[in-house]
Amino acid sequence: MRFLSIFHRLAGALCTLMIVVLVSLPAVAEDLPVSVLKITGHDGKLHDFKVEVAASAQTRATGLMNRTSLAEGKGMIFIFPQPKTVMMWMKDTLIPLDMFFIDSEGKIFNIAENAKPMDETIIPSRGLAAYVLELAGGEAQRLKLSPGDKVSGASLAFKAKN
After folding, report:
1. Is 95 within 8 Å of 137 (Cβ atoms)?
2. How far is CA 52 from CA 45, 56, 68, 155, 160, in A?
């Protein structure tokens, strides 16, 4: 009997711990594929990023909303069914972001740096974007990334849904 009492207490503690861990994880609409993306800067330096791939209408709509942090070298790539003028915003996004607007050839043509958290102001692509890459605010400046830099990697081969 004593063994069962100890077992029940341990099982209860483990369940509580699992709930605490799950509640503290970032909210994601679904398990997103993760891929390595590379940016070749105008200076020839290569920068690697591990990005979540948002290829469906639902994951593009949710993006990085409600995240409390975004580690250096991590981000999210939004993949669109066809190149278009994209309108982004920061509603329900808790952290500043750099947004890189990328054409179908993988060239960055516009960067919106340090987009303000929780701001509903529209951030336009200013051109036809096949992809939008979001990184932590300040990454563009820290890594000296600029329009004209080239993006490559397996994540650009994902097909958008809807």
Report:
1. yes
2. 22, 12, 16, 9, 13
Which pTM value belongs to this model? 0.80
CATH 3.30.70.1350 fits 30-157, yes or no: no
**Type of residue at 108:** I
Q: Where are the alpha helices (DSSP H) in the chain?
A: 2-24, 57-62, 139-143
Side-chain half-sphere exposure of 31, counting CA atoms within 13 A: 0
Beta strand spans in the chain (E): 34-40, 46-54, 74-88, 97-102, 108-115, 123-136, 150-153
pLDDT digit string (tens) for 115-147?
Answer: 999 999 999 999 999 999 999 999 999 999 999
Does residue 51 contact residue 77 with C-beta atoms inside 8 Å?
yes
Read off the amino acid at residue 131. Y
The string of pLDDT tens digits covering residues 78-89 is 999 999 999 999
Q: What's the CA gap between 121 and 67, in Å, rounded?
A: 19
User: Which tokens sit at 5?
Assistant: 């009492």
